[in-house]
Amino acid sequence: MYERKLPIQEECGLDLIREVVFGKWKIHLLYYISQGISRPGQLQKNIPEASRRVLNIQLNQLEDDELVAKMVYDQQPPKVEYYLTDLGKSIVPIVNELGQWGDNNSEHLRRVIKKRLVLPEA
Amino acid sequence: MYERKLPIQEECGLDLIREVVFGKWKIHLLYYISQGISRPGQLQKNIPEASRRVLNIQLNQLEDDELVAKMVYDQQPPKVEYYLTDLGKSIVPIVNELGQWGDNNSEHLRRVIKKRLVLPEA
DNA sequence: TTCAATACGGATAAATTTATCCCTGTACTT
DNA sequence: AAGTACAGGGATAAATTTATCCGTATTGAA
């Protein structure tokens, strides 16, 4: 896969949770799966900004970390459904709060994020 | 600073919050500052795994994003104190929940994280 | 006068994460 | 026979984030 060179921090709860949810699309995936969007193709339609490849990678990581699991139906064409494990379910309320906080402060956040694009003034 | 080439997603609340708190040490900094650890040197002592340089960078970003602000005392040797803005304060409860979740599930999380170091079995 | 404490940031290398492109396979439809 | 839907992953380039190293500045203490 990829041989890690730097040590992974696991001192405190913040270190640990960061390791499993700080991927570009992980909280989105957890959110949509919690909403019943379970198939890869559907998830991709709901997150069009992400490429299918990256979603697969992040889904695999969530699966490795046991936040989600998947059901592979033995049929053709293939059908797969992701679902949350108990651990995954337990984090959904926090994911919802994260999204809520972002929505509640979207005006402010969009403003500060836009500033980043502005080149430092002469 | 660094000229961004890929567009920043800002469709939903999850996109937005990711932009401001998904740095390696940002949630730690918010947590410690909320606990009254306000000076750079103290923050560094509390997060020894991080280099001083990175903490400065992340503190600057938190400041740019207006989650924290700082008070620079005009004295020698220098004295600086960071504090949370109202927006910063509003996110602290979520940061605490993140840490709590990580602590509550530390056994599980340490286990799955360790698996990553194991090379794929022959 | 040399060192410690305090805070800050440039420059560059290294590591990690994302983005892109492309290919595999089966069953059904046209 | 060729195209579509479905899910998955290899290989590699590009982007972004972190790590490292080092230099600036001032006051007081040893």
Would you kindly provide a written description of the structure presented here, covering whatever features stand out?
The structure is a homodimer of 122-residue chains. Chain A is built from six helices and two strands; from the N terminus they run ααααββαα. With 122 residues, the first copy, chain A, is mainly alpha-helical. Chain A has a single domain, classed as Winged helix-like DNA-binding domain superfamily/Winged helix DNA-binding domain (Arc Repressor Mutant, subunit A, Orthogonal Bundle). The longest helix of chain A is centred in the last third of the chain and has 19 residues, at 86-104. Chain A is globular, with a radius of gyration of 17 Å. At the A-B interface, helix 1, helix 2, helix 5 and helix 6 of A face helix 1, helix 2, helix 5 and helix 6 of B. Chain A binds a DNA duplex (30 and 30 nucleotides) through helix 4.
